[in-house]
Amino acid sequence: MKRRDFIQKGAISIAGAAAFQVISEKSFASTKPELIDSVNLGKSGLRVSRIALGTGTKGWKKESDQTRLGMPRFVDLAKYAYDKGIRFFDTADMYGSHTYMREALKTIPREKVTLLTKVMPYDQQGWYKAEPFYKSLDRFRKETGSDYFDILLMHCMVNGKWAEQYRKMMDDLSDAKSKGIIKAVGVSCHSMDALLEASNNPWVDVILARINHRGNRMDSSPEKVMELLAAAHKNGKGVMGMKIFGCGELTKDDEREMSLNFVLKSGNVDCMTIGMESPAQVDDTVARVMRIIHN
Fold first, then answer.
1. Which phi and psi (to 5°) does residue 63 adopt?
2. Distance (Å, rounded) from C-alpha 65 to C-alpha 9?
3. pTM flag (> 0.85)
4. What is the rounded CA–CA span in Å between residue 199 and residue 211?
5. Per-residue pLDDT band at 32 (split at 50, 70, 90)
6. Between the CA of residue 182 and those of 62, 78, 267, what are the distances in Å?
7. Which of 70, 102, 117, 128 is most buried (most C-beta within 10 Å)?
8. What is the 3-state secondary structure (H, E, C) of 95-108?
């Protein structure tokens, strides 16, 4: 082989190996630009993007993986998600993501997005003290810079008696809804009993429930949870799925694919909140979801 040909082929080989390494290291990678579509959220009257940008991955004690990105990177991520059609942002007091969303809303038009937050009605292990609802609501509005919330959920319902335990907060939420400060109310569920109550309770507009194909970080088997979600959907509840990737336990390529197929093709889940942390993850998730729903 001539020396020139040897050098050229060697260079091509090295370049190819480098490219393979980059692709393999980016398990989240999209080759086709996509925009996510929008869906009706049950009978809540809201139309939302099929994916919400979650801000609560490992969210606890007023921080999460999303807030740990730092303010500039979070704002860039939110703007990137918005440009990909993700017009739904899932926040919570517990995640400490309100002020991060406030900065993002300086670059994203508030009137074009759905903003969800959650309020804890009970104390948490010495670091979280529940407040009277309107005190929390006023604080949330200041922290986010938004006068209203599209969806406000009672956070982390863990038993079937929540509608009795938190009747006062439910009444306050309904009052705020009547004033236009909130458009839809509901609960995030962390037990089967809580989910059963939510699926039948007429007060509930929106349910946030853990669902994936493996049962990771869920309240029961995928089949049993999906049965309750089907009942909730039949009752007109807006059903949002969370823990689609098992809180980071189902992030291999085939696992992401199987979980998204399971949830999207069930017909029982309107939309999903996914705690993405980079533009590459946004691209991958949007492309996968759009391909699955069109197949």
1. -155, 165
2. 44
3. yes
4. 15
5. low
6. 23, 22, 27
7. 117
8. CCCHHHHHHHCCCC
